[in-house]
Amino acid sequence: MKNHRKPLNRSITIGCIIFIILLCVLLSIANHLLFTNYVYDDYQTYIRELLHVSLSQIDGDDLKDCIESKEESEKYKASLLYMDNLMDHIDDIHYLYAVLPLNTNDTGNMMSVFSAERYYDRYVDTEGNLYLGWISEDEFDPETAALFAKIMEGDDTVTYFEENTEWGIDYTGAIPIRDSDGNAVAVLALDIDMTFLKEQILEHAIVNILLVTLTGIGFIMVFLLWSRKNITKPIVALEQSAERFVDHSQGQRDVKALDFVAPEIHTDNEVEALSDAVVKMTEYMREYVTDVVSAEKKAANMQELANRDALTGIRNKTAYDHEIKKIEVRLQDGETKVGLAMVDLNYLKKLNDTYGHEKGNLAIQKLCRLVCTVFDHSPVFRIGGDEFVIILCGNDYDNYEALTEQFAAELQKMADDPALEPWEKVSASIGAAFYEPGKDDNMESVFARADQAMYENKVAMKAVRE
């Protein structure tokens, strides 16, 4: 079977794998982004509700007075107690606090308004607790301070951002606290620890990739099995049957033996239809060949003895003699542009003695084909066992020298081809003569000079080999 550079089965496999890999990657990325957005939206809703609940417990006017006086009012304490309870009952909250942006420097840039604490931190381990009026030194970087200042100057929409702290990564939601006149007096912020959120996203991503990959692998296996059964395997079987038919048909003289054995294909698709079409085509070809062979046999019986050479299929000595008579009539009418080229197969006797007459005949046939191919504008005749004569006409007459070089080059190419058998490496001598008024009385003298030129070429070739 022919070794294809790009087998269909391999191409389908590679294409399917590449497609599934790209699909898996795109689906994984899309699913990951959708899930991440969903989780963040869910957390944003969660943070927004907690902020609004906390904001509902804060009196903006009272808080403004507390900030200015640095004294905690009863309302302030009640609000702080409410937020402490939120911290105790909701584990997700990392920090719940209010700050007043002072500047965007890297020191002294934020004043603590309040900071909710869990019971243990508020009443047992109080180290690190922040109180009203405390000024930060380096807890907030300039970028975060600028962001809080912008939030305080903005509207009542919750602003979300991620913040890197020494305790980890927090997801923060912040909203301005306003007094009764609508003036912002501080910023209320709530931090959610991102650790669980990141773990949740990572876990989902891993599970999603595994599911998509396994699904892709399963699809590849199913598709490849299906394509092998319904496409590649039937096509390979059809190809093998066609190659067996071609190999069996070469040189076959018995038309009845030209029988195409179709493979068993039952795919109910285009491949089965193709197989049926090939079967019908070979049947039509067989019928056509039968008709052609029959006609050729009749023609051969009628023309073989008269004009056709049985071995090569070209015209024979009888046909050549008839053609020369026609040419001599034209010479009498004043036509002078005519020439003859003699071609003689070298070493025919040696080929016959060494490999048999059948191989010698093959050499004659091959030389005949070469002569007819190179001198394709002129009639060629086989006038003897290994002799051919060409009546040079038209372009062949004008370009004889170039065609002779082409003929010699083709002979040399066959001689240098290691894949050819000895009887396929035909060797031949060639010589030509052209009608010259006053020198030639008829075509017989032209023939004699062409034959002499061919003989001289044969002697020269022999001298070169020796």
Task: Please sum up the structure shown.
The protein is 58% helix and 14% strand. With 466 residues, it is α+β, with helices and mostly antiparallel strands.
Instruction: Give average pLDDT, whole number.
Output: 85
> What is the number of helical segments per DSSP (H or I, 4+ residues)?
13
Q: Going across the major beta sheet, what is the strand order? A: 2-1-5-4-3
Basic shape: rod-shaped
Helix-strand category: alpha+beta
Q: What is the fold-level CATH name, i.e. the topology of the largest domain? A: Beta-Lactamase
Cα end-to-end separation: 44 Å
For the record, the CATH class of the largest domain is Alpha Beta
Question: Residue ranges: pLDDT <50 for 5 or more in a row?
Answer: none
Question: Which descriptors would you attach to this protein?
Answer:
alpha+beta, five-stranded antiparallel beta sheet, Alpha-Beta Plaits, 3 domains, 466 residues, Beta-Lactamase, four-stranded antiparallel beta sheet
